[in-house]
Design a protein that fits this description.
161 residues, alpha/beta, Trna Endonuclease, Chain: A, domain 1, globular
Length: 161
């Protein structure tokens, strides 16, 4: 049985969605997720204020929360504009949101999933993986989030756009 997916209009050629759909039923897969905070916070790396974010995919499961920004960019585009900062900000917003509802530390993994092969860009706590590495990475993380916690996280003011 595959991951329980909550999303609108999946693209037929969506490699990331196809790969993430291979996850077992214990994982919840959300697509085009919008998360917002009540007040803006300062993103320390640029000192800009952030209050909300749109995330391509959020996977919630026994091994943690995985914030995934999918890109089909070539190497030149990656050098000009990096999605790493975007997914890092989303991770900050998710972290703040979860801390309001949980005393337990819920592991959050920020991921840029690339479809085309290119140079690895190192950016703080952001993992850059190919689409085909996603499920193995998600499986390999060691955590123990309960079914009740997974359901609670799913309900936390996250909306599919």
């Amino acid at each position: 049985m595959c991951a329980k997916a909550y999303f609108k209009k999946p693209g037929k050629s969506d490699l990331v969605l196809r790969e993430l759909s291979k996850l077992p039923y214990q994982f919840v897969l959300l697509r085009n997720v919008f998360i917002s905070l009540q007040w803006p916070v300062t993103y320390q790396k640029t000192t800009e204020s952030v209050k909300s974010c749109q995330i391509d995919y959020v996977v919630i499961g026994p091994s943690g929360i995985f914030i995934i920004e999918a890109k089909n960019w070539d190497e030149i585009t990656f050098k000009e504009k990096t999605p790493h900062e975007e997914v890092d900000k989303a991770g900050l917003i998710m972290y703040i949101k979860l801390n309001r509802y949980f005393t337990k530390k819920i592991p959050i993994y920020n991921i840029v999933a690339t479809i085309k092969h290119g140079s690895l860009i190192r950016y703080g706590f952001v993992h850059q993986l190919s689409v085909w590495q996603l499920t193995n990475f998600i499986y390999s993380q060691d955590s123990n989030i309960s079914k009740a916690e997974i359901r609670k996280i799913r309900r936390l003011h996250m909306s599919n756009k």
